[in-house]
Amino acid sequence: MSHGNIHLRYLFAAFLLTALPVLAQSNARAQASSVQTDGLSSGLRPPVEVQYQFLPSHGVGQRFETGAKTSVSARTAIQQGRVHSVPVFSSTLTFDGRPFPLTLVGKAPKEGGTTEVKTQVIPVSMFFEGFADVGGNPIVLDVNTVLPLALNSPNFRAASYPSGFTQFADAAQRAQFFHSMDPNWHTMLTPPQMLKPVVIDVPRGAASLYRVPSGRVFAIVDTGFFVSQLNTIIQTEDLDVEALPIALTTDVFLSPGASISGCCVLGFHTAFDGGQRENTVLLQTFIWASWIDDGIFGGTLADVTPLSHEISEWMNNPFGSNVVPPWAFPNGAGGCQDNLETGDPVAVFANSGFPVTIDGFTYHPQSQALLQWFARNQMSEAMEGAFSFPDGTLLPTPSQPCTPR
Fold first, then answer.
1. What is the pLDDT of residues 84-110, one digit of tens each?
2. I need a labelling partner for 359 at 20 to 30 A (CA). Which of 42, 97, 202, 297 fits?
C-alpha cells in the first residue's frame, strides 16, 4: 500500500447493495459483438425518440445530492482536527450572533500561497443490455468520447474571471474571501491521475434510454443499481485519501427505478471512513458527475455544469459536515436545507451555467452561491458585494429563512 492510499470496503453504509458485475473493457466489447450479431430480432429495442429539452418539458430538473457517510467517530475527529484527508482549514460563518464552524479545502486565506490538491479520474462507461440502435448496434455511453474535453475544462485549466486568472472553483473561493485573503492565495486541482477505466454492464430494467434528434442518447439509470456499482468500483481502484477521486460518466442521470418521474440526479459528492492510524481517522472524499451533451436539458445546463457544481461544493464542504442557518431555495422553487451546498441554490435557474471558452470550446461551469449568501447579511463582504459568482445577478440578495409550513 503506497503512502496516502487506502483500500476501501464500502462507499455508502446506507446502500450496502449486492453489486452486479462490473465488466472489464475486453468483456464489454465481447458482449457488444454478440449483441450486434443478434440485432433487434433478439428482443432488443431502440432508445425512445424524443425532442430537444424533453426532460424540462416534462417538469424534470437537475438535482444534486450530498451523500456523506462518515461515522460518529469520524465526525468527532473532524471537529478535533484528527483527520487525514485532503488539506483543509477552519473558518466560521456567523449568523445572528451564533457561530457556525466550517471546514473548507485548502489553507487559511490570510496565509497566502497555493494549495495543490491531487485529483484522480475514473472513466466510467455504460453498456445497456436490452437496447440497440436500428442497425442492431449495441448502446454504449462511452465517456472516453468526452474525456479530453472534460480534462481540458475550467475545472482543471485556468481562465480569466473577475477574481483572477485561475481555475473555476478557485476563482469562486477567491471571490468570497477577496477582502480577507492574501492576494497570492489559491486552492488548485492538479492535472488528474487517470485510474482504471470501467465499463458497467447495465441489465434490463435498470435503465431507460432516450435519443434526441442529434442522435445523442441519454440514460436514466436506477439510483440503487448505480450506487452499488460505485461500491464495487471503489474496491478495485487505488484511491488516494489525500486526493479527490472523480467518477465521470456521460449523459447518465439517476432516478429511483430509472423512472422519469424521479429524475434527475446529475452528480454528488461524499466522504466516508477509510480506516484509522493511531488517533487519526482517514477520510476519503469522492465525487461522481456526468457530462451532459447539448439539447438534453436546455438553458445553459451542459457539458461540465454538474462537475463544476460538485467540485465547488466539495471545496466548501469536503466532509459534508458544514451546517449553516436553514435557507429556502430562491426563485420560489420551494424546499429548505441547512447544509453548506454552494451549488444547490443556483441550480434552480435555467441560466446557472457560466460560459467559459478554452481552446475554442465554450464550457458551462455553474455559478455558485457565496458564503455571504448563507450568512444572510444585507451587505456582502465578497468581491464587489456579490452573493453569487461569477454571475452576480442570479442571487442579488442574501438567502431567506425557511417559512414554516
1. 899 999 999 999 889 999 999 999 999
2. 297
Q: Grid coordinates representing 264?
A: 434527475
pTM higher than 0.70 for the full model? Answer: yes
In the beta sheet, which residues pair with residue 117?
189
Distance CA 168, CA 214 (A): 29
Q: Which helix (H) or strand (E) holds 115?
A: strand 114-132
Per-residue buried b or exposed e for 364-387, using 16+ beta carbons within 10 Å of the residue's own CB:
bbbbbbbbbbbbbeeebbbbeebb
Q: In this structure, how many other beta carbons lie within 10 angstroms of the beta carbon of residue 7?
A: 13
Which is it for the CA torsion 19, 123, 205, 223, positive or negative? positive
pLDDT in tens, 178-222: 999 999 999 999 999 999 999 999 999 999 999 999 999 999 999
Query: What is the rounded CA–CA span in Å between residue 94 and residue 238?
Result: 39
Residue 37 has pLDDT above 60, yes or no: no
Which residue type is seen at 14?
Answer: A
The whole-angstrom separation of Cα 307 and Cα 126 is 18
Nearest CA to 229 among 396, 23, 25?
Answer: 23
